[in-house]
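Backbone-to-sequence.
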């Protein structure tokens, strides 16, 4: 039987990092990368804002600073990003510090959703030139760890080493794999909050610092800021059987597209659950479904002016009354976020918004839109048997799906780390 040296499930940054990490040292390895999607490369398709500073994107339970920084340097050397300039940061930092808020200085690049697609095209071309089989539109359905076989919807692939990097969308798949292999996992952290959308002139810091990372008290932070040509989007979770729900998100196009004068970013609170209620995913699903129930199957949007008065928003808040700009995700239901979001989460986020409005005055203009829910699932972190994210014999679990990363560069770094584990086992 002809066994492929390494089969990688998922062409997101984690899978790509693993493939390039392996080929850098052992170009003779046979590698197959599968992706269920016809268009490859997972989260590189969305916005493609890359952070090159610890601890952004690195769960501290899996990484220490010096280790993460060593891998980040390798990611940066490989991707050769163009790091964006920052201005006037000292002014914002001073104001933040007075309020007990931290502004992290991050080295960032931004390709935009269209620029990300161009990067993917180059990376996939490079892998093909190196002899990697890229199997798009092929879904891994099952595996046999004993006989080292991956079953897809098209064939069976015998492997020597298996790397599974299915991203956040692959939780269910990963869970099935871990249950089958008897791999213990933890699932107790979730980030929940709102996405804020306003005119750029009311959050002008984005002209000085593209994606400012503010850390507020109570484990609350800003996340994923988009501007210039920025849009709020929704992601679908669940299915007809288990119940559908949505999380909002945001992205921007590259600087070659016309600007729309708006900015959006998330304010998220990290919730860590403890026994007996320890499933972050179940909790997130319940909150997502509650929001979908109140929003008639859609996320909810509310103008700050209405929220401050404790009133729900109506369609007219978006066309007349508090109208100032149109929402970029107009399919959301105008409503009352306070009826859906848990008090502890909403209080922390609102408190962060007030602090932010003092640091960057303008944010709390009545026309600013709050979208709910924005939920980030980071669960299902396996109990690894070594420091290279090996979860069982010949099996490595990496990327956001395995809880080893929370962003493009850290996902890529997790792939490099798994590649190193495999290379060591080969030597
Ligand atoms: C709208 C949006 C915007 C974002 N913007 C940014 C940003 O600007 N900067 C940033 O750092 N992060 C951003 N992120 C997060 C980032 O995309 C992820 O952190 C990163 O992509 C995780 O990489 P990954 O390789 O673990 O998984 P993914 O990138 O999700 O890739 C997983 C791949 O596995 C495939 N797959 C899943 N299951 C199977 C299966 N059974 N068989 C075959 N293939 C399978 C999927 O199709 C997918 O292509 C954003 C996310 C979203 C949703």
């Amino acid at each position: 039987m002809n066994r492929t040296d390494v089969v990688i499930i998922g062409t997101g940054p984690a899978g790509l990092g693993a493939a390039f990490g392996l080929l850098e040292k052992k170009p003779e390895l046979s590698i197959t990368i599968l992706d269920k999607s016809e268009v490859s490369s997972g989260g590189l398709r969305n916005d493609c804002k890359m952070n090159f500073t610890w601890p952004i994107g690195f769960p501290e339970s899996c990484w220490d600073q010096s280790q993460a920084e060593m891998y980040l340097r390798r990611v940066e050397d490989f991707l050769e990003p163009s790091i964006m300039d920052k201005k006037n940061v000292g002014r914002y930092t001073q104001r933040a510090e007075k309020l007990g808020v931290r502004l992290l200085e991050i080295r960032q690049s931004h390709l935009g959703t269209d620029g990300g697609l161009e990067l993917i095209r180059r990376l996939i071309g490079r892998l093909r030139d190196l002899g990697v089989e890229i199997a798009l539109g092929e879904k891994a359905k099952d595996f046999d760890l004993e006989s080292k076989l991956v079953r897809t919807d098209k064939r069976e692939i015998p492997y020597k080493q298996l790397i599974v990097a299915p991203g956040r969308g692959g939780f269910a798949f990963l869970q099935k794999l871990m249950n089958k292999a008897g791999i213990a996992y933890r699932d107790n952290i979730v980030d929940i909050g709102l996405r804020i959308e306003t005119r750029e002139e009311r959050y002008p810091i984005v002209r000085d610092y593209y994606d400012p990372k503010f850390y507020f008290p109570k484990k609350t932070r800003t996340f994923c800021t988009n501007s210039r040509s920025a849009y709020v989007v929704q992601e679908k979770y669940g299915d007809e059987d288990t119940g559908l729900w949505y999380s909002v998100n945001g992205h921007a196009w590259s600087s070659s597209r016309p600007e729309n004068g708006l900015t959006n970013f998330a304010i998220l609170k990290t919730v860590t659950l403890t026994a007996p209620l320890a499933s972050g995913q179940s909790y997130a699903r319940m909150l997502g479904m509650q929001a979908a129930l109140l929003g008639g199957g859609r996320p909810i949007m509310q103008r700050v002016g209405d929220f401050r008065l404790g009133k729900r928003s109506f369609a007219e808040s978006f066309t007349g009354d508090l109208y100032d700009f149109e929402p970029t995700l107009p399919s959301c239901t105008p409503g009352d976020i306070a009826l859906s979001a848990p008090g502890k989460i909403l209080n922390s986020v609102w408190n962060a918004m007030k602090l932010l409005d003092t640091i960057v005055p303008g944010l709390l203009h009545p026309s600013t839109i709050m979208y709910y829910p924005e939920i980030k699932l980071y669960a299902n972190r396996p109990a690894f048997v070594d420091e290279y994210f090996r979860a069982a014999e010949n099996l490595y679990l990496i990327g956001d799906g395995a809880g080893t990363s929370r962003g493009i560069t850290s996902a890529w770094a997790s792939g490099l780390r798994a590649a190193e584990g495999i290379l060591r086992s080969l030597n």
